[in-house]
Here is the input.
Amino acid sequence: MQEILTLTRASRNLVSKLIEGYTLEQLNKVPVGFNNNIIWNIAHVVVTQQLLVYNLSGLPMLVSDEMVTKYRKGTKTEHFARQDEVDEVLSLLTKTIEQTEIDIQNNVFQNFTEYPTSAGYVLTSAQDAMTFNNFHEGIHLGVILGLRKLV
Here is the structure.
C-alpha cells in the first residue's frame, strides 16, 4: 500500500504546484459549461479519499461532516470559498495523506464495507479503495488542468 500512497502524494503535490499564485477569485471561478471550480475539485478529492478509505473502513475521517456535505460525489459549487476554507482544504490535501501513511504503518485498516463504484469497479478492501482513489484523483487532476486555462 506504500507504493499506492506514494502515487497519491505525487498527484497531490502536483495539484499544489499547479495552483500556486492563483487568486481566491480564480480558485472560485466556475467557467461557463462547468458545475465546479478548482477549489471544489481539490476539496472533492480530499473528501472522496476520506470516504473511500476511512469511512468504508469504519474509521473516523479527518474531514468535517460539513465538508463532506459540500464536496462529496453529486455536489457542485454552491458558494464562494473564503480564504480560510481554501487554506484548510490545501492543508488537508497533505495532512490526510500523512495520516493515511501513519495508519497504514499502524495496520488500522482491518475492516471494510464492500462498495461498488460508479465506474463499475467493486472495492473490497482499503487497498482497493486507495488504488481506485488514485484513478479518481487523476480524473480530477485533468479537470483542474482544464479549468486553469479558463480562469
In short: Residues 83-105 form the longest helix (23 residues).
